[in-house]
Amino acid sequence: MKRTLSIYVALLVVLLAVAMDSKLEDINAIKKSSEFLYAEATMPTPTGADSTARQMLHEEIIRWTTEQLQEPMDSLSALRLCEEADTMMTSRANMFRVFTFIRKNKVSPMFKLQADEPSLLNDSTKKNLMRRFGNQKKIDNGTLQKVMKARNFFELKEIMEPLKEKGEILDYGKYATAKNPDVCYLIIYDPAGNIKAWLDKGKDPRRNLKTQKPDSISNYRGCGAIWFTIKN
After folding, report:
1. Which of 174, 177, 146 shows the shortest CA–CA distance to 162?
2. Burial profile 156-182: b = 16 or more Cβ within 10 angstroms, e = fewer
């Protein structure tokens, strides 16, 4: 029993180390890219690190807009952007490190990367960043909007059946019955039937249709999933 526990703990340590290395790789890639504004803070508590990092990002947004657009973004708008920023948390000894970042073209649509700008990122890293953070399109499909009004598993059926009869939804079913999950939207629901997440089509990590951030079905252990396809 003790040997089994030791093996389990060792495996867990290895998995955490791999996950940490992946985060550090992404952080370094973002720092090298000219497409992001970012800030980081290391504090004794996660909330302290997060609050400090977002405050620093707020100052960075003000600084950058002043430099690029010749006038600073107003403080309230900058605060809203900081709330929408993505974050990654790592650890340093017994401290917590929060890295928060946002795309420059989200701060100002006027910002465009020059086509001939020399890139510090290799093709593999560019693809990885786009896969994780680049797919930020708005939900503009009418059928999706209708389906996403459902709050629980029971409301879902009442909405989806009429849409299927109209041909707007091509098909749907339990996740285990999906022949090709990558082409399906996913609805995650908890044991009580409450909907926890709406995930876009594609391979993991998918896009969470509510938060617009990378997400995965593996983040919802103990939950069930419904797949569905819609008419393009």
Report:
1. 146
2. beeebeebeeeebbeebeebeebeebe
Q: Pull the structure tokens for residue 50.
A: 């997060």
Q: What one-letter code names the amino acid at 96?
A: F
Q: What are phi and psi of 68, to 5 degrees?
A: -85, -40
Write the DSSP assignment of 111-154 as a string of letters.
Answer: ----TTPPPSS-HHHHHHHIIIII-------HHHHHHTT--BHH
Quote the DSSP letter at residue 216: -
CA–CA gap between residue 4 and residue 1 (Å, rounded): 5
| pLDDT tens digits, one per residue of 124-145 | 555 555 554 444 444 445 888 8
Chain position carrying tokens 């999933």: 225
Position 120: which residue type?
A: L
What pLDDT digit, counting tens, does each position of 82-112 carry? 888 888 888 777 888 889 999 888 887 544 4
**Domain at 2-134: CATH code:** 3.10.28.20
Beta bridge partners of 125: none
Task: State the alpha helices, DSSP H only, in the chain.
Answer: 2-32, 46-69, 75-84, 104-107, 123-129, 142-147, 153-166
Q: Which two tokens stand for residue 23?
A: 């985060």
For the chain, the structural domain boundaries read 2-134, 142-230
Q: Is the dihedral of CA 173, 178, 181, 183 positive or negative?
A: negative
